[in-house]
Specification:
eight-stranded mixed β-sheet, 5 helices, globular, alpha/beta, two-stranded antiparallel ribbon, about 160 residues
């Protein structure tokens, strides 16, 4: 099934409005997405997949933050390994830039950076590098049954 449709099905299942928007120029990076949407880069919730001994894990963090794998590993008791595009395609049927915990067929462990809870709305990939949706951090937590923790170090670059 199309990943955008999987996200739509998830939104429908939870009784949420379909807030998915398509951007022809793409939203491959947090900066691209913020520019297209007209929001702060930190409101872009990037979803990064890591391989663990228990399978894939998705960590969601603000667009200006860098995920500290060791910090997440200590908090979850798992060792995290970065993955490439082939892993995303084969394990999650998602493309780089289109990763979202709302389009996965299986219940993967999800961790959301506590920094995102400073915003009423965040923007998340809707399954492709060109589709995004707005959602509250709390609703994302509820849908994904995510753990909330400080998982990042703020990047020294400003956006």
């Amino acid at each position: 099934m199309d990943p955008v449709q999987r996200v739509r099905d998830t939104l429908c299942l939870w009784g949420l409005d379909d807030t998915i928007q398509a951007f022809g120029e793409g939203t491959h990076t947090a900066v691209d997405a913020a520019r297209a949407i007209g929001c702060e880069v930190h409101q872009i919730a990037k979803s990064i997949v890591f391989a663990t001994t228990n399978g894939p894990m998705i960590v969601v963090a603000g667009g200006t933050n860098r995920i500290d794998k060791r910090k997440v590993g200590r908090a979850t008791g798992m060792k995290l390994h970065s993955v490439g595009a082939d892993y995303l395609r084969e394990r999650l049927e998602l493309e780089p830039g289109g990763v979202t915990p709302l389009a996965t067929d299986t219940e993967l462990p999800v961790v959301i950076d506590s920094d995102l809870f400073a915003f009423d709305q965040i923007w998340l990939s809707a399954g492709t590098p060109s589709h995004v949706l707005s959602i509250t951090p709390e609703m994302l937590r509820m849908i994904t049954k995510a753990q909330i923790m400080a998982v990042t170090e703020v990047s020294s670059s400003s956006s």
